[in-house]
Amino acid sequence: MRLLTAAATTLALTLGAQFAAAAPIELKFSHVVAENTPKGQMALKFRDLVAERMGDKVEVKVFPNSQLFGDNKVLEAMLLGDVQMAAPSLSKFQKYTKSLQVFDLPFLFKDMEAVERFQQSDKGQELLNSLRKRGLVGLGYLHNGMKQLSANDPLRVPADAAGKKFRIMTSDVLQAQFEQVDAVPLKKPFSEVFTLLQTKAIDGAENPWSNIYSKKFHEVQPYITETNHGVLDYLVVTSAEFWNGLDDDVRAELKKALDESIAYGNSISG
Ligand code: SIN
Questions:
Q1: What is the span of the domain harbouring residue 195?
Q2: Residue 32 beta carbon below 6 angstroms from any ligand 1 atom
Q3: Which residue has the CA at smallest separation from atom 6 of ligand 1?
Q4: Would you tell me which of 21, 57, 88, 162 could form a disulfide with 92, CB atoms 3.0–4.6 Å apart?
C-alpha cells in the first residue's frame, strides 16, 4: 500500500511538473493611452498575433489607460519583473539615458516621414541600444504623431503662451522649451491631464491628435493650435533579463509578431 501511495505521489509530481512547464509565459504589456490610438491598437494586434501563432508558449495581457502602471513607474516595475513590455513616449527615458532626448528638440523634424527616416538610419537604430547599460532593451520605435498645443485662450504667436501653465512629460528638454517662451511647464502624469485641464489647474497641454481625441481633451480645451512643433513617438521596451531569458525560437517569434504589430500601429498613426 505504501509503495502504491509513493508511486501515485511520484506520478502526480511528474505530471504537475510537466503541466507547470507547459504553462505559457505571461507577458504583461502596460501602457497609458486609450485602446483607440496607434499604441492601443498595436498592443492588441501584438496580443492577437501571439495568441494565434504561439498561444501555447506565450500569453500577452494588455493593460491600457495606466491601469497597471503610469509611465513614470513602468520602467522600474519592468526591472523588477512586474511587467514585461511597455512603449513609453521617447520623452520619458531621461532617467535612463540622455541620448533619446534628441527627439524632444523643437522643430527638428519637418514631418513624420522625416522622423521615420531618422529612426531607420544607422544613428536611429543605434539609439535603440541606448538603454542596454540600464538593463532595458529597445525593441523598436512606434509612431504616434506630431504634437499640437491646446489652451484655454487662443495661442497665435509664441508670446501668447507667456505666464500660462502647460502640462508636459518628464523631460528637461521640453521644460526648457516652454520656459523659453516664458510659459510655466509642469511635469505631470498623462493620467492626470484631463482633470488638470477640466479644473483649470493648468491652462494648456501639448499632445498629438490621437491623444487629444481619445482622451477628450478637446472637450475641456476651447482652442487648439496646429503647431506640429515636436514629435510624440514611442520606444517599445522590455527588460534584458526577461528578453534574454527566453528560448531563442520564442524570442525570434515574438520579435516577428512585434515588428508586424508596430508596422500596423504606424500605418494608422498620424
Ligand atoms: C502616450 O502617448 O503614451 C502619453 C504621452 C503623454 O504622457 O503625454
A1: 148-225
A2: yes
A3: 190
A4: 88
From 141, 167, 232, 269, the mutation candidate for ligand 1 (largest count of ligand atoms within 8 A of CB) is 232
Per-residue pLDDT for 38 more than 60?
yes
pLDDT tens-place string over residues 74-84: 999 999 999 99
SS (H, E, C) 23-68: CCEEEEEECCCCCCCHHHHHHHHHHHHHHHHHCCCEEEEEECCCCC
* Nearest Cα to Cα of residue 145 among 35, 232, 236, 84: 232
The answer to whether the Cα torsion of 27, 28, 31, 35 is positive or negative is positive
| Shared-domain flag, residues 44 and 160 | no
Number of neighbouring beta carbons within 10 Å of residue 59: 16
Going by C-alpha positions, the residue among 165, 223, 169, 214 that lies closest to residue 194 is 214
